[in-house]
Design goal:
single chain, cell membrane, transmembrane, 444 residues, 15 helices, mainly alpha
Length: 444
């Protein structure tokens, strides 16, 4: 995603007739709006993944009992958490620094892969050793066959996260969409085969198979085409200065956010059991699509800001204005259709999860403001402020979840998310002119 040119491979595609009309009418606007263009590609990737993912979970909940779905999602959540920790936030570091790395891009990417894979593998091994203490419901992961696959899957998912940042940084956001399409389609195909053969671990096998295929496809494109083209186009690039310091501090904030996202399903599993965790987890998967839309626009903001730091305030306000209305519409639709949407997965899902899905959807609105504030702070290298916001989110979400889950069940978990997001967003809204001044004014 670049500030001034379309992603390679996109602008060169032949245009359909209706695209020709759009280009004639809105051509200049499309050409000079890389923030929105690249953000839209990433958002489209999330929406496509969500649509195929919804179909995937319809199949999974039809073929497997809620207890199996809940345990499987807890494993996936653990892999996501450990891979997120293990990748050392190098995905976001690559988004920030690859645009200026030039001929050093391949070396930066391979070093990031090595560090992320090694750290994720070590964390997965430590997690397996501590499972009886921290997640007894996942004790089956310590088996002689399952354990090594869990470690390998965690390492692979860490690389999957890092490659997204690399693709974004080398201006191939269209391939983020492509790799996610491969992942989603292969996942459905493997699940279908596993269910047909009555394999009880079909959900986990489908994720592992899809991960392996998407890693092969995306890295072929990345290492054979995208990185060489980026290095040829930016021969004057250099290794980013103070990269380790930036990465270490930014990593601290990422740890807090990942903890908030991925520890909650483990709390639900150990407190309420596998079936309740299935109801909560499916609601989170659906609502998280709204979070991803905001996150992806923030990634585009970071790339644009890396090329033109003077536009940070303008870019931040544009993300708010452009994302707010469609996000609000999406929240309203999701709140209204929640029971009918969940009924697709089974009557028990609609009965048990409608309330929590509505609360999680509503929490996406204040999350937009929080996410923009974090990305603006990161773009300005005010990392202490970015880390503080993410630490506060983690503390509020986990603290409120523990407090509300016993009296209110999974609905209390949804309320915890909404309360936490609103608690942070309200002061950000009040102080908006200070941390995101209008372009005509200077930051204080």
């Amino acid at each position: 995603m670049t500030p001034h040119t379309a992603p390679p491979g996109v602008a060169d595609l032949p245009a359909a007739p209706y695209l020709v009309v759009l280009r004639r009418r809105f051509g200049s606007a499309l050409h000079y709006e890389p923030l929105l263009r690249n953000g839209h590609v990433l958002v489209a990737s999330s929406l496509m993944t969500a649509a195929v993912g919804a179909f995937y979970w319809v199949l999974a909940t039809s073929w497997y009992r809620p207890e199996t779905v809940g345990r499987s999602y807890a494993v996936i959540s653990a892999v996501t958490l450990l891979a997120g920790f293990g990748q050392l936030n190098l995905s976001d570091v690559l988004v920030r620094f690859v645009p200026s790395a030039g001929r050093h891009t391949r070396r930066l990417l391979l070093r990031s892969y090595a560090a992320a894979g090694l750290c994720a593998g070590l964390l997965a091994g430590a997690f397996l050793a501590l499972v009886p203490l921290i997640a007894p419901g996942l004790g089956f992961l310590r088996g002689p066959l399952v354990g090594p696959f869990f470690v390998a899957g965690t390492m692979g998912y860490a690389l999957f996260i890092v490659q997204d940042g690399a693709l974004t940084g080398v201006r191939r956001a269209n391939w983020v969409l492509g790799e996610n399409a491969v992942f989603a389609v292969v996942k459905v195909l493997v699940l279908t085969l596993a269910a047909g053969w009555a394999i009880s671990s079909g959900i986990l096998l489908s994720w592992a198979g899809a991960l392996a295929v998407s890693l092969l496809v995306a890295n072929y494109v990345l290492l054979r085409r995208a990185v060489p083209a980026h290095e040829r186009a930016h021969t004057d690039g250099r290794m980013p200065p103070r990269l380790l310091g930036y990465a270490a501090t930014d990593y601290g904030g990422a740890l807090f956010r990942l903890s908030a996202y991925n520890i909650v399903p483990l709390i639900v599993l150990d407190t309420l059991g596998g079936a309740r965790n299935a109801y909560f987890s499916l609601s989170w998967v659906i609502a998280y699509t709204l979070y991803l839309a905001t996150y992806n626009m923030g990634s585009s903001l970071l790339v644009e800001a890396a090329h033109d730091p003077a536009r940070i305030s303008e870019l931040g306000r544009r993300v708010l204005r452009h994302t707010g209305p469609p996000l609000t519409a999406g929240v309203v639709v999701l709140v209204v259709v929640a029971p009918w949407l969940l009924s697709v997965f089974g009557a028990e899902y609609a009965d048990q999860a409608t309330g929590v899905l509505r609360l999680l959807a509503l929490s996406a609105l204040p999350n937009l403001l929080l996410n923009v504030a974090i990305d603006v702070a990161r773009a300005r290298r005010r990392l202490a402020w970015a880390v503080a916001l993410q630490a506060a989110l983690c503390a509020l979400v986990l603290g409120l979840t523990v407090r509300l889950i016993h009296p209110f069940g999974i609905t209390g978990v949804g309320a915890a998310w909404l309360l936490a997001e609103c608690t942070l967003a309200l002061p950000l809204l009040i102080t908006l002119p200070r941390w995101l001044p209008s372009p005509a004014r200077s930051p204080r």
